[in-house]
């Protein structure tokens, strides 16, 4: 006696078929991301600190994902080796003088490796070659630097506030100049006196020029100036 109807069997078959299709699709997507179905070659690099990099993270070249991190191993107390699997089709663009840096997917995304472009005349990288690396800047170091900058800004702001309070209170030369009208008037009068003295000095010099005792000196000085100007104009005409 049949315990399942024909409709139930059809539904079960459809469910199994859809499940298998989704499984195959997932395998294909994962395999494509991890380069399981593409020919790859291996290159390595070393870091002092991988800064959270993990196996399986992406590798980028010219902004394009070209491979994945295959293995991370500690060589000694100051060196970590990173092995990379890169698609064979981009090998011709990666040069032996290319550098490897550690970046991130956005501000708080996963870590990734970035291969920089090398020089045009450098040879193409080969299987198993080791590329130079640039050490990443740690987030903790950035935050510590920002804290120092913020502390300095706070000190400067406090000092500026103190200066403004003293100025508004009339303390110091600038404060007295702004708040004390008598001090400002005295300063203004001093400037007027200086201007008057300068005008008197100009008048005295003009009188000295017309004095027969100094007239020859000033005439010789004016003559030399005229000769110098004429020589300069002559040199300009010769250049033209």
Account of the 3D structure:
- The chain has 3 domains: 1-33; 38-136; 180-236.
- It is 50% helix and 21% strand.
- The protein is built from 5 helices and 7 strands; from the N terminus they run αβββββββαααα.
- The protein has helices at 6-33, 139-168, 172-179, 181-210, 215-239, and strands at residues 40-47, 58-61, 64-76, 79-87, 99-104, 111-115, 130-134.
- The protein starts with 5 loop residues before the first helix and ends with a helix.
Key traits:
7 strands, alpha/beta, 3 domains
Concise account of the structure shown:
With 240 residues, this protein is α/β, with parallel strands linked by helices.
What is the domain tally?
Answer: 3
Distance between the termini: 118 Å
Task: Tell me the major beta sheet.
Answer: 7 strands, mixed, barrel
The count of DSSP E runs of length 2 or more, i.e. the number of strands, is 7
Shape: elongated
Rg calculated over all Cα atoms: 41 Å
Give, in spatial order, the strands making up the sheet with the most strands. Answer: 1-4-3-2-6-5-7
Structural class: alpha/beta
Low-pLDDT regions: none
Could you tell me the strand content as a percent range? 15-25%
The average pLDDT value, as a whole number, equals 77
SSE ordering = HEEEEEEEHHHH
Count helical runs. 5
Q: Give the oligomeric state.
A: single chain
Question: Helicity range of the residues?
Answer: 40-55%
């Amino acid at each position: 006696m049949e315990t399942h109807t024909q409709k139930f069997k059809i539904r079960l078959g459809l469910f199994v078929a859809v499940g298998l299709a989704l499984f195959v699709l997932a395998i294909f997507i994962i395999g494509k991301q991890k380069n399981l179905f593409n020919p790859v070659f291996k290159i390595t690099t070393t870091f002092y600190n991988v800064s959270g990099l993990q196996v399986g993270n992406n590798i980028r070249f010219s902004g394009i994902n070209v491979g994945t991190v295959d293995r991370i191993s500690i060589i000694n107390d100051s060196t970590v080796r990173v092995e990379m699997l890169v698609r064979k089709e981009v090998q011709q663009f990666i040069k032996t003088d290319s550098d490897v840096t550690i970046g991130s997917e956005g501000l708080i995304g996963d870590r990734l490796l970035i291969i920089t472009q090398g020089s045009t005349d450098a040879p193409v990288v080969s299987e198993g070659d080791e590329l130079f690396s640039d050490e990443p800047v740690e987030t903790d170091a950035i935050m510590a630097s920002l804290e120092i900058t913020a502390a300095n800004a706070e000190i400067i702001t406090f000092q500026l506030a103190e200066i403004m309070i003293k100025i508004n209170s009339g303390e110091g030369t600038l404060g007295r100049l702004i708040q004390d009208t008598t001090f400002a008037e005295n300063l203004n009068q001093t400037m007027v006196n200086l201007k008057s003295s300068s005008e008197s000095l100009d008048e005295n010099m003009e009188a000295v020029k017309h004095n027969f005792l100094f007239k020859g000196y000033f005439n010789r000085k004016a003559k030399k100036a005229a000769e110098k100007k004429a020589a300069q104009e002559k040199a300009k005409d010769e250049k033209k």
